[in-house]
């Protein structure tokens, strides 16, 4: 087993991650019980904390899959500790996604762990490593939407329900964006091993700009409308209405209010 080459410290969960998880748990409890004097602040911290936890697990999934695929270097790099400070680009992988959540309510993909692909043998393993991250977002989305599609919302406080709806929106957008077959995103990493050498060589220079290209396209109203229509359709199929995600976002941005969301929907 490749894990035999790891030191104990390579797999020890980081106190940084545990601290983020603790903040998420406490503010989630405060949102559920209504303990916080300002529920919006509790929702903001709960959703932000849960979003960062999902980002850490997204990158952990990449690293863990790579470990079992043959890249034992991920342990020494600290990728298995869930510590976001160990990532290759902590700014791009944590700070920027959080800023995009605050500004636009969209789950920004982040690329953070450097996999030594030369250690990996087999195209299926390469594809699985790339797919592992966004599949984690899919799993998070399933968990967040479970109370809705299981029709188990009785007794769930309004603020907590709206927070879950908004968090589900972030996970669905992150999963879809990550799975786009665009150079630099995980979706391209899934199909890249199956492309010819000439195609890969021609596409490679675009990788650093892939995410920028995607967001430039999303600024086009027609493209943006289609994208969010798809998101809304997926969420509706899971029992989450547009009013839930909208009011969840408004509650998250506690520094502004919308009269539409001041009355329990």
From TrEMBL:
Q: Name one GO biological process term.
A: proteolysis
* Membrane topology designation: Multi-pass membrane protein
In terms of superkingdom, the source organism counts as Bacteria
Q: Does the keyword Metal-binding apply?
A: yes
Q: Where is it localised?
A: Cell membrane
| Residues in coiled coil | none
Key words of the record: Cell membrane, Hydrolase, Membrane, Metal-binding, Metalloprotease, Protease, Transmembrane, Transmembrane helix, Zinc
- Cofactor(s) needed for function: Zn(2+)
Q: What residue ranges are annotated as transmembrane? A: 12-32, 38-57, 90-115, 127-150, 162-185, 205-228
Any one Gene Ontology molecular-function term assigned to this protein's record? peptidase activity
Question: Would you identify the family this protein belongs to, as annotated?
Answer: Belongs to the peptidase M50B family.
Name the UniProt record assigns to this protein:
Site-2 protease family protein
Which organism encodes this protein? Streptomyces rochei (Streptomyces parvullus)
Q: What is the lineage of its organism?
A: Bacteria, Bacillati, Actinomycetota, Actinomycetes, Kitasatosporales
């Amino acid at each position: 087993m490749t894990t035999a080459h790891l030191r104990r410290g390579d797999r020890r969960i980081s106190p940084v991650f545990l601290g983020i998880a603790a903040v998420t748990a406490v503010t989630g409890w405060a949102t559920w019980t209504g303990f916080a004097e300002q529920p919006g602040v509790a929702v903001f911290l709960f959703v932000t904390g849960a979003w960062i936890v999902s980002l850490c697990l997204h990158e952990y999934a990449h690293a863990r899959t790579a470990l079992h695929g043959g890249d034992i270097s991920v342990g020494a790099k600290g990728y298995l500790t869930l510590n976001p400070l160990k990532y290759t680009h902590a700014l791009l992988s944590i700070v920027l996604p959080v800023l995009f959540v605050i500004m636009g309510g969209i789950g920004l993909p982040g690329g953070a762990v450097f996999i030594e692909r030369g250690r990996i043998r087999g195209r299926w393993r390469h594809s699985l490593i790339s797919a592992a991250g966004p599949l984690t977002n899919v799993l998070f989305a399933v968990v967040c939407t479970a109370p809705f599609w299981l029709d188990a919302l009785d007794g769930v406080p309004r603020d907590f329900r709206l927070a879950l709806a908004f968090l589900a929106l972030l996970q669905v957008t992150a999963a879809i964006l990550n799975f786009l077959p665009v150079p630099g995103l995980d979706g391209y990493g899934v199909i890249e091993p199956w492309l010819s050498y000439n195609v890969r060589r021609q596409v490679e220079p675009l990788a650093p700009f892939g995410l920028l290209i995607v967001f430039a396209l999303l600024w086009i109203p027609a493209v943006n409308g289609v994208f969010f229509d798809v998101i809304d359709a997926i969420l509706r199929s899971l029992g989450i209405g547009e009013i839930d995600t909208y009011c969840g976002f408004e509650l998250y941005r506690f520094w502004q209010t919308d009269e539409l969301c001041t009355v329990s929907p």
